[in-house]
Every structure is written in C-alpha cells, then in structure tokens.
Design goal:
Elements lengths: L2 H16 L5 H17 L7 H11 L29 H34 L15 E4 L2 E7 L2 E4 L6 E3 L1 E3 L9 H19 L3 E6 L18 E7 L2 E2 H7 L4 E3 L16
Parallel strand pairs: 4-7
Antiparallel strand pairs: 1-2, 2-3, 3-4, 5-9, 6-7, 7-8
C-alpha cells in the first residue's frame, strides 16, 4: 500500500474519532490503529480480526486492502531472529569438530617451531641472537669456532657443539639459582676473553660414553668432546683457578654426577 492510501485512512480515522458516537473501547481501538499507522506507515500490518473491526467502525469502503498479519508471519517491526535449537548429536558433533580443528592447529604450530629450530641448528654460521649461537668467534688449528658458554664451543660446519672436558662451569641457560646464573655469565665472558687474544689449540677427544653411542643423544647429548688450550694452558685449569669452574673428571665409558656447588 502506498503512502496516499495510508494518509486517506489516517484522515478517516481522525474524522471518526472526532464524532461522539463511539464507545470507549472503539475510541481506544481506533487510537491504537492510528498510532501504528503514524509509527510504521506503509509497513503497518493488521490481523484479519483487526481489519474486520476497523471496517465496522469507519466503514468497509474506507478500509483499503491491508495485507493481514498472521501468527506465522509476525508484524515486521517485531520480528526477531531466533536461533534454531540443535539436537544433542548436532551439539556434540559441533563441539568435537571445533576441538579437532583447535588441536590440529596447535600440533601444526608445534611441529613448525621444531622444524625452524632444527633448521637453525644446522646453520652455525647464521648470525642470530639465540643461546646456542655465540657472539664471538675464534680460530684454532684451522678450525673456526664460537663460544656457547663457559665449557662448550661450537665449531663452524658441525651440527652439534663440543663439550670441553675436565671441568664444569655454572649453567647460564638452566641455572638452579641466581648466583649460578651470574657465575655462568662470568665464566662465558671469561672464556670469550681468553679465545680473543691468545694462541689457541682445540683438540677433539673421545667422549666418556658407552661403546657404540658416540655421536648420539645417549652420549653427551649428541655433542663431541675436546680440549681447548690457550697459550699452551688448558682453559679449564684457568677457569678453575679463578673460581669460575670446578674439576669434573670422567672415566673411560661414564661420568659421575655433574658437580654444581654454586647454589649451596
């Protein structure tokens, strides 16, 4: 219905309301219809019963053909979207599908991180600020290496580090207390200082591991073993004399518990 028809009906209702022959119920009914027309204009919808009452009061000829509102098609201004109720099996399937997608995403991210770190470990020449890459390099007997911590170096071109034998320094990456961490940083800095201004000699030796495990994770976490000398003196002896390391002597196929006396 166009605006002209609603304007005509509004005028007719006003005219009937001005008359005094209406009952209180009829006057209230017309007033309610008039307010709906003012509010919704050509979007106004009335039920069949409302149309019948309106025709009785204002005259059949004055009631232009409204599109009646049914119970199945509520008035447009009051329509609200209601979510469809899902069955128990639908809810369960929806929950499991979301969980599978979430867990799969976590698994993919986890393996991606592992692959990235594996790739980086195979590129010792890559200059990155990561714990297993040292910030200072040195050359010994034609081998270029970098200092990882106070008792470990990393030879360029090798996938794993080289554990210096005969001594143990405080841990930097997994200390048991703050004092151990501080001493570990001092030991690492001291070893970098020694290799920066001395004549170096790095000699690889067999690790104290069970036969057949050399080069595997079961032997020294996959690392090789060696001795590093500066100006003919073992770096372990220097660090022990300065209180930055302790003696750590292994047997031919095994080692005693690693000494870590720095936390008391």
């Amino acid at each position: 219905m166009d605006d002209a028809n609603y304007q005509f009906l509004r005028m007719r209702i006003d005219a009937v309301l001005a008359e005094k022959r209406l009952t209180a119920w009829q006057r209230g009914f017309l007033t309610d219809i008039r307010n709906k027309i003012d509010k919704y204009g050509n979007r106004t919808r009335l039920t069949k019963k409302q149309l019948q009452k309106l025709a009785e009061i204002v005259g059949e000829a004055n009631v232009v053909p409204f599109r009646p509102r049914t119970n199945k098609t509520p008035f447009a201004a009051h329509v609200r979207w209601q979510p469809r109720k899902r069955s128990f099996f639908e809810r369960e399937a929806r929950w499991w599908s979301r969980r599978i997608v979430r867990d799969f995403s976590f698994a993919v991210a986890f393996f991606a991180v592992i692959l990235v770190f594996s790739f980086l470990e195979k590129m010792p020449n890559l200059s990155l600020k990561l714990p297993f890459f040292a910030s200072q390099s040195a050359t010994a007997d034609g081998q270029r290496f970098s200092v990882t911590d106070g008792d470990t170096v990393h030879v360029d071109g090798e996938s794993a580090g080289t554990r210096l034998v005969g001594f143990n320094t405080p841990e930097v990456f997994s200390p048991r207390c703050e004092r151990e961490r501080q001493l570990g940083e001092r030991a690492s800095a001291r070893l970098k200082e020694l290799v920066a201004s001395s004549s170096l000699s790095l000699t690889k030796i067999a690790c104290s591991c069970a036969p057949g495990t050399e080069g595997t994770d079961e032997c020294n976490h996959g690392r090789s073993c060696g001795r590093l000398e500066v100006d003919g003196r073992d770096v372990g002896d220097i660090l022990i004399s300065e209180g930055l390391a302790v003696s750590f002597t292994c047997g031919s196929t095994s080692c005693p518990p690693t000494p870590r006396p720095w936390c008391g």
